[in-house]
Amino acid sequence: VSDGVATDDRLTAAAFEPYDPFIHTSASNVYEIYAALREHHPVYYSEARNCWCLTRHADVQAASRNLKAFSNRPGVALDAPNAYGRGDFLDDDPPHHDVLRNIVRPFFTPKVITMLASEIRNRTMEILAELRECGSADLAADFAIKLPIWVISRLLGTPEADDADIQRMVLALEVRTVGDPDVPPIATAALKELHEYLADLAKEKRRRPDDRVMSGVVAAAAAGELEADEVVGMASILFSAGAETTYALLGNVLAHLADTPEALHSLRADMSPASVEATIEESLRFENPVQYSARTATEATEWHGVEIPSGARTLLVWAAGSRDPSRWERPDEFDIHRTSQLRHMAFGEGIHFCLGGPLARLEARIALPLFLETFSDYDIRTRKRRPNHMVRGWDELGASLVVNPAS
Ligand code: HEM
């Protein structure tokens, strides 16, 4: 092996299963595949999807910071590039990316987000109160999705009566078939419906503005800071990025704790904010909800002696970088006691670093301890992975719940 380039014939020929993001994002062996890529094929070409893949922490970081050589414009999703249309600043480059991000940035700063804490807490208690009555629940459908939908909807400024519709649209938007590059009709229809809904919402906010994000975006459009036809695309990325990822995080952390009884036991013994925070960060590191993002090469670059040609679609596999053994000891262990401050890649890197990071963290830091205080025990009996090409989470987490009478 020279500098980790693909020269280990035993592995390439025998054990290595060709990486296909449309199959492996929801596969049980995804981390074994990433390990093989990181070690033996750090610059991997996926024939199945005609894209290059970077998996080492240092490489993913370097590529995400190299704005000269890699563009977001052709879209960060492989299967539905630019689906949200103009205004989605994740699928954009500077300077326009920065103009658009700056319009909504003030709504998502840690200081502003912290002011939502008591509302988020109250809503979490309401959701948990419904679960208390049941004895069993689907922690994905009855818990993990509900809070992020409620939070992002209140932030954007939609009426609470629309939450169920919004949840339905956001979930349908993400439906995929494992291995199939085509976006299914249910997802295409949901996107159309969401766009129409958001266009109506924009009209309503023009008539009756409030202090929420959608009114802010509409006002910015009226002031000429963005084009009128960018409003819906911007709102779409906020809804989708805000809900499906946090949904995945909440389900993942409950599943990791159920699967690692020592960690659960230890967290229950010390539910201090620091300990809760460490658990959530470890869950984010261990299982990045967004497994990768695509870039498009605007010039040829060389990585470990291999050229990624100009024009090539290139995946930055955050989830593989977050388990790089050169950064973390025992990277495949879920260890809530890690003291390492080295940054995981769950929220990306560089100028597109997740705008909603503080919000997602706040939701999880409130929801996790409240859940554990409400239920003195829980056991996940059935589970179904979400068959998505990019996001790794659970569609179903059937659990039995033991109510803590003191809660
Ligand atoms: C655990 C939850 C979340 C995870 C794992 C996550 C992950 C990510 C990642 C990896 C990126 C970078 C993508 C890239 O560079 O290609 C990103 C960007 C983004 N996220 Fe999040 N996200 C989460 C929650 C949220 C929330 C709650 C919001 C709220 C609106 C949000 C809004 C955004 C936006 C707008 C961008 C694009 C930023 C830009 O292009 O400048 N995310 N997120």
Low-confidence stretches: 1-14
**What is the mean predicted local confidence, pLDDT?**
95
Ends apart, CA distance between termini? 57 Å
Specify the overall morphology: globular
Structural class: alpha+beta
Main sheet: strands, sense, barrel? 5 strands, mixed
Q: How do the strands line up in the largest sheet?
A: 1-2-8-5-3
Helix and strand sequence: HHHEEHEHHHEHHHHHHHHEEEEHHEE
Ligands in the model, by name, code or SMILES, are: protoporphyrin IX containing FE
Count of DSSP helices?
17
Counting DSSP E segments of at least 2 residues, the number of strands comes to 10
List the helices and strands and how they pair.
Elements: H1 9-15, H2 21-24, H3 30-40, E1 43-46, E2 51-54, H4 57-65, E3 70-71, H5 96-104, H6 110-114, H7 117-132, E4 136-138, H8 140-144, H9 146-156, H10 163-173, H11 185-207, H12 213-222, H13 231-259, H14 261-269, H15 273-286, E5 293-297, E6 301-303, E7 306-308, E8 313-316, H16 318-321, H17 357-374, E9 375-385, E10 394-403
Parallel strand pairs: 2-8
Antiparallel strand pairs: 1-2, 3-5, 4-10, 5-8, 6-7, 9-10
Helix pairs in contact: 7-9, 7-17, 9-13, 10-11, 11-12, 11-13, 13-15, 13-17, 15-17
Protoporphyrin IX containing FE is lined by residues 76, 89-90, 101, 237-238, 241-242, 245-246, 249, 289-290, 293, 318, 346-348, 352, 354-356, 359-360.
